[in-house]
Specification:
single chain; mainly alpha
Length: 106
């Protein structure tokens, strides 16, 4: 499994140990990473929406068309990121279900 290490090359992992490692080692870390990515993406969407609102307000005050264009671009980007958030939510849900199923088998 680990040919570059004399000690690690003696590592053996049966079905039960592998299941345990996946359930309580790798899977929770993956869940944490997915949740952190979702949190960062949500913060990005919030910032884009806030900037879009700021550009729109400034455009109303000054009548500059370029600010409206910037506002619309920010809103489109925020909408795309919102779709990413939904995909991350689904991935988290699937991973939680898989971990739950694995932990019942352990």
């Amino acid at each position: 499994m680990f040919p570059d290490s004399a000690i690690a090359s003696k590592f053996a992992c049966g079905e039960r140990k592998c299941n345990y490692l996946a359930t309580f080692g790798v899977a929770p870390r993956e869940l944490d990473e997915l949740r952190a990515k979702r949190k960062r993406t949500q913060a990005s969407v919030d910032a884009m929406t806030k900037s879009a609102d700021k550009y729109a307000e400034e455009a109303e005050k000054t009548g500059q068309v370029t600010l409206i264009s910037k506002s619309n671009a920010m809103r489109r980007a925020a909408k795309e990121k919102t779709a990413d958030i939904q995909a991350l939510d689904e991935a988290v849900s699937k991973k939680e279900t898989a971990v739950k199923d694995m932990s019942m088998d352990a």
